[in-house]
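Supplementary Text 2. Reproducibility record for the structural model of the 111-residue chain.

All settings were left at their defaults, and a single model was retained for analysis rather than an ensemble. We include the record here because the model underlies the residue-level annotations in Supplementary Table 4.
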Amino acid sequence: MSCGNHHDTDCSEVLAEVWLFLDQECDEGRRRLLAQHLDECEPCLAEYGIDEKLKRLLAAKCGGEHAPDELKERLRKQIRVKVLEQAEVRVESGPAGTTVEVRSTRIERRS
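Retained model, structure tokens:
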């Protein structure tokens, strides 16, 4: 997804990492970049708001029970895979290292 405006951080990257941002699982530098983008980009801020409300709802309805750490880790991995697929990011790890491929579509608006 792209709003059509230029940002230092692409919309698809921000939306792919919005749950990491919400869970405070990214480093401070990345957190600042994502926050700056959300301040500048109304469509991404709206999506962030939906995700934030969902996170609060899940915490309120499921907050009494604690899942085992192994389950949490499996869920995190599955969510990361789906988020990367949705953002059209492919990550492959092998003996030679890790390869990351990002597909992006650029949308230009003309006045």
